[in-house]
Amino acid sequence: MPIAIKKSSKAAKFGNLVPMPMPLSLKNRTFTLLLVACVLLLLGRAYQHLFFEAPYRSFFLKQDYFGWAVAWFSGQEWVAFVNDLRTDRAILALGRTVGIFFAVSAIATLLVFRPYRRLVQGLLYTCTALLAFMAFAYYLDKGFQFAQIMEYTAQAATPALLAWYVANPKSIALQWVLRLAIGLTFLGHGLYALGLYPVPGYFVHMVITNLGLTNDQAVQLLLLAGWMDVGVAIGVLLPRMDRFWLWYAAAWGFLTALARLTTFVFLDHMFWPSLHQIGFEFIIRTPHFLLPLAALMSSGLYAKLSTPRNSPNQAGVGA
Questions:
Q1: Is residue 21 situated within a structural domain?
Q2: CA torsion, points 196, 197, 203, 207, in degrees to nearest 10?
Q3: Average pLDDT over residues 10-39
Q4: What is the 3 state secondary structure string of 21-72?
Q5: pTM listed for this prediction
Q6: CA 289, CA 262: separation in Å to the nearest integer?
Q7: d(CA 286, CA 2)
Q8: What b-and-e string marks burial along 153-164, b requiring 16 or more CB atoms within 10 Å of the CB?
Q9: What integer pLDDT is reported at residue 11 of this predicted model?
Q10: pLDDT tens by residue, 92-147
Q11: What separation in angstroms does the CA of 1 have from each of 4, 96, 313?
Q12: Range with the lowest mean pLDDT among 196-210, 248-262, 263-277, 292-306?
């Protein structure tokens, strides 16, 4: 016999769409994976911003996008703005400020299941907005290659996914967005590997260095990997068929992230300088393999929620 649940006035207003609070802890594997992915991503991006330069010049020094703001607020001629040393200092200062914000947010994220949850969720959504803007700047920097934006989907979405999961861990929309973020990221990689955009030279270099293949063999392997990436983009969205593709995405995402270290970090007197230069490249890619694992932890829920409900008895209370 169905259990009758008395709804509050707020629940009555929104019906079953109101989620019941679910206590979160590190025993919840999906939550833990999202948390670790988010913290490492933000720490990696903080390191990049504090020690290197983010691609913001591609936006702020592009007249088509920022020229109107210069004319409106300062009245400077564009050439004068671009050549002004204060512009250079301001862009550098912006990068350092964003880096500090990412570092603070990474530490604050550890409090997401405590009473400060609402504040931390606000920080996480802000981080997603900043990461999305950064992806757009990379898109401009790479000459308007849309696959560049797609590659950063998982990274940009990770903070928002964690904040969303804390608020409503059984949301079907959350499960769809999680898988879309994974699929778009791998599809972006696949478009490069398939040659629809110029194949990055370091893709080929990493394959040759780690597997000892010839240049032609490396290109053929990348072609195969590209088609598999397309398979990931489709397969992760298919209920009850997603597990294989999520396991593959987790494994391939880890290997491609690790390849940055095995290729560009040298085990000699250049170890520390090369690790400083490239170590964060592995850290910022942790969502590429931790998000598929998080999706795997909830694949049964995804299949259940994606199944059409044919009778009133199948309907449950939102959780």
A1: no
A2: 20
A3: 65
A4: CCCCCCCCHHHHHHHHHHHHHHHHHHHHHHHCCCCCHHHHCCHHHHHHHHHH
A5: 0.85
A6: 17
A7: 43
A8: bbbbbbbbbbbb
A9: 40
A10: 999 999 999 999 999 999 887 677 788 999 999 999 999 999 999 999 999 999 99
A11: 9, 60, 10
A12: 292-306
Q: What is the pLDDT of residue 68?
A: 87
Sign for the pseudo-dihedral over CA of 258, 264, 268, 271: negative
Q: Please report the DSSP string for 79-132 in residue order.
A: HHHHH-HHHHHHHHHHHHHHHHHHHHHHHHHTTTTSTTHHHHHHHHHHHHHHHH
pLDDT value at residue 251 = 98
Whether residue 65 is contained in a domain is answered as yes
Q: How far is CA 132 from the centre of its chain?
A: 9
Q: Which amino acid is at 151?
A: E
Nearest-angstrom CA–CA distance, 246 and 186:
11
**In total, how many domains does the chain have?**
1
Q: Which domain holds residue 267?
A: 26-307
The two three-digit tokens of residue 89, written as one number? 């200092």
The share of the chain scoring above pLDDT 70, in percent, equals 85
The reported pLDDT for the residue numbered 300 is: 66
pLDDT of residue 292: 97
The predicted model gives 156-183 an average pLDDT of 94
The secondary element (H helix, E strand) that includes residue 148 is helix 146-151
Closest Cα to residue 104, out of 143, 67, 159, 150?
159
Is pLDDT of 57 > 70? yes
Q: Give 172-175's long-range contacts (Cβ < 8 A, gap of 24+).
A: 172/302, 172/305, 172/306, 175/295, 175/298, 175/301, 175/302, 175/305, 175/306
Q: Is residue 136 part of a domain?
A: yes
Q: Give residues with Cβ within 8 angstroms of 109, minimum separation 6.
A: 35, 38, 39, 42, 120, 123, 124, 159, 162
**What is the structure's pLDDT at 217?**
97
The answer to whether residue 278 is domain-embedded is yes
